Amino acid sequence: MDGERNNRNSKAVAYWKANLKAIAILLAIWALVSYGGAILLAAPLYNLRFGQIPLSFWFAQQGSMITFVILIFVYSWWMNKIDREYDVHEE
Amino acid sequence: MSTETWTLIIVGLTFAFYLYVGYLNRVRETAGFYVAGRGVPAIANGAATAADWMSGASFVSMAGLISFLGYDGAVYLMGWTGGYVLLALLLAPYLRKYGKYTVPDFIGDRYYSHTARAVAAIATIFISLTYVAGQMRAVGIVFSRFLQVNIVTGVIIGMAIVAFFAVLGGMKGITWTQVAQYVVLISAYLITTISIAWVLTGNPIPQLAFTFSDFAVRLNQIQVDLGLKEYIRPFQNFSLINVFFITLALMIGTAGLPHVIIRFYTVPRVSDARISAGWALLFIALLYTSAPALAVFAKYNLINTLHGKTRAEIEQIDWAVKWEQTGLLKFEDKNGNGVLEMTADKATNEITIDRDIIVLSTPEVARLAPWVVGLVAAGGLAAALSTAAGLLLAMSSAVSHDVYYRIWKPDATESERLMVGRVMIFVAILVAGYFGVRPPGFVAEVVAFAFGLAAASLFPAIFLGIFDRRMNREGATAGILVGLFFTLIMIVLMRSNRLLGTEAPIIASFLGINAQGIGVVGAILNFIVSYAVSRATPPPPQEIQDLVEEIRVPRGALAPVAEH
Questions:
Q1: Deepest in the core among B205, B274, B510, B525, taking most CB within 10 A?
Q2: Which chain A residue has the Cα nearest residue B217?
Q3: pLDDT tens-digit profile of B54-85?
């Protein structure tokens, strides 16, 4: 009985760790494109071009937003996969 | 047919459709009223969330705002979209698993405290109320501008429409009406933006035309030649530190806005909450990535058409004459040389362009058919009405569900609760309408409040409730109060010239951070105080720690939590 409970707890801990790892990776990208590409690195990236406009300007007014959308869809797909791996997905 | 006739027909048709959708989705039980029976498909919830989120101001003013701020307009673009990433990854799936009705529900249960519940309810009401006043005003303005009725009549028509589907259908009626409103508003925005992109650049896709044509660079050069600030260079209007903090405050604030959060209670499953946040942001980004393109093209076109012309030449341009009559476009030959010129100095500038004109005038400037003008009016109204409805529901459910049912009368019957819900939403509409007719003079100031307070109070409390099992009642309550009061006091001090009537703001900034970005500091203080106080006080009861374990896992029903 106790063994089964410990087993279940360690599985829940491992699931939560996998979840936190996914969140950390995706939020790192989230910060990189917006606070990095459009703000902190705005000056150096201004001198690079994307299409006809400066790269930092593209990140600021297009690229960050496009990345955000992709991040949420990746998160959704990734979490569903983790849910199934740890057998905690919904019926 | 004239533009006015087309506008009347299209606005009339869309309103009739909203009423029909609202009537089809009337409800009889509280779960339907507050969370649409949790039966909304993920993609429909995404469209409803997008309509809920994008206000009349987003629709009418945002492109104009960006066209005046240039690069730094990114604070709004990134701030109002990046918050959805936080919402999707950190809050939405867990709140759906928890599965109640409101934001104060979660905070009150998780922190086993009616004090925390009441504070969260007050924050919800205050945030939603400040926001909704602006929406009703926008309804009035769109009506008066396109249909030549006065603002009061416009507000009353808007109130009647919202009252009909919100009182009858609650969340269910609001959700399906918002789906319809999203379709109207995005069609109007995209038809306009695609047309002007096509006319100017020959590329019909605004996002590509923006990146791969040289219009942004050309606009930048024109602004330099006129002595205006550079368009594509960063930090011309806000300092780096303010761009950073305003963006972060808007992101955290967005993730903490109650009317957005409660939308994720309406989907059937945890996995639907995740993907529906993706749909919501995709639908929002369709407009938000088009707006900077519209900003560049419309501004370039306006300056190019109007600058350096004589009075007689301007009078040949029919849209210029029409918008001059509304006061959104002003010409004055101050130096009397016969030519109208734009300059950077207010004293010598001869062409004044109101930012709202960027969206409103584009259909005519791009020579689109008159029905497109009508569609834009309908789109602006759809944006304002859908946001107002969502806010009204968030506000009234905080009163009728959290204060009346959970705190004051826990033995209320189903029909009593539904009745109070309907009455409260009606009261909320009257209050919002009053502010629409008599707007407080500081509407722009109070929007900074809404985001700042959501960032400093609700977001940290919900986040810690999920990710820190050890967080307890004492820590969370202390954190919310410190975050709330710090932010409130700072905004009042920095905007005291508008709010208190002092001659100059009492303090100019907090370490270089302005009122719009101060919510971040409030949120950080909230986190620090919550952590310190919670570690110095007893851990939460075992049943609460079990609840936290359960909401972290998608599968399984939640064990009932004892009512405190």
A1: B274
A2: A53
A3: 988 788 888 988 999 999 999 999 999 999 99
Interchain pair A65, B285: CB under 8 A: yes
Triad B314, B366, A53: Cα angle to 5°? 105
| SS3 readout for chain A | CHHHHHHHHHHHHHHHHHHHHHHHHHHHHHHHHHHHHHHHCHHHHHCCEECCEEHHHHHHHHHHHHHHHHHHHHHHHHHHHHHHHCCCCCC
Cross-strand pairs, B540: none
Q: Is residue A31 part of a domain?
A: yes
**CA–CA dist B254, B535 (Å, integer):** 29
B281 or B421, greater pLDDT: B281
The answer to whether the CB atoms of B554 and A83 lie below 8 A apart is: yes
| pLDDT of B440 above 70 | no
User: What pLDDT is stored for residue B563 in this prediction?
Assistant: 46
Residue A41 lies in a domain: yes
- What is residue A6's predicted lDDT score, i.e. its pLDDT? 67
Taking CB atoms and an 8 Å limit, are A64 and B90 in contact across chains?
A: no
Residues of A in contact with B212 (CB under 8 A): 51-52
Q: Is B446 exposed, middle or buried (0-12, 13-18, 19+ CB in 10 A)?
A: buried
Beta bridge partners, B309, equal B340
B257: helix, coil or strand? coil
**Cβ neighbours of B247 in A, within 8 Å:** 34-35, 39
- Rg of chain B taking only CA atoms, in angstroms: 24
Q: How far is B58 from chain A (nearest CA, A)?
A: 15
User: Is residue A65 included in any domain, yes or no?
Assistant: yes
Question: Does the pLDDT at position B336 exceed 60?
Answer: yes
Number of alpha carbons in the 13 Å side-chain half-sphere of residue B335: 15
What pLDDT is recorded for position B405? Answer: 86
Measure the CA–CA gap between B230 and B363, rounded to whole angstroms: 27
Assign B160 a pLDDT band (cuts: 50, 70, 90): confident
Residue of B78, B207, B554 lying closest to A88 (CB–CB): B554
Tell me whether residues B271 and A27 touch, CB distance under 8 A.
Answer: no
Q: What is the 3-state secondary structure (H, E, C) of B324-364?
A: HHHCCEEECCCCCCCEECCCCCCCCCCEEECCCHHHHCHHH
Q: Classify residue A58: in a domain, yes or no.
A: yes
Q: Which residue of B has its CA nearest to A51?
A: B212
Band of residue A1 on the pLDDT scale cut at 50, 70, 90: very low
pLDDT tens per residue across span B504-537 = 888 888 888 888 889 999 999 999 999 999 999 9
Q: What mean pLDDT is reported for chain B?
A: 88
Choose between B147 and A46: higher pLDDT.
A46
Overall average pLDDT of the B268-276 stretch: 94
**Is the pLDDT at B214 greater than 50, yes or no?**
yes
Tokens of B474: 């004492």
Q: How many domains does chain A have?
A: 1
Which residues of B fall within a CB distance of 8 Å from A35?
A: 244, 247-248
The one-letter code for the residue type at B29 is E
Tell me how far apart the alpha carbons of residues B143 and B435 are, in angstroms, rounded to a whole number.
16
Locate the chain A residue with the closest alpha carbon to B550.
Answer: A12
Domain that holds residue A21: 2-85
Phi, psi angle pair for A49, to nearest 5°: -105, 145
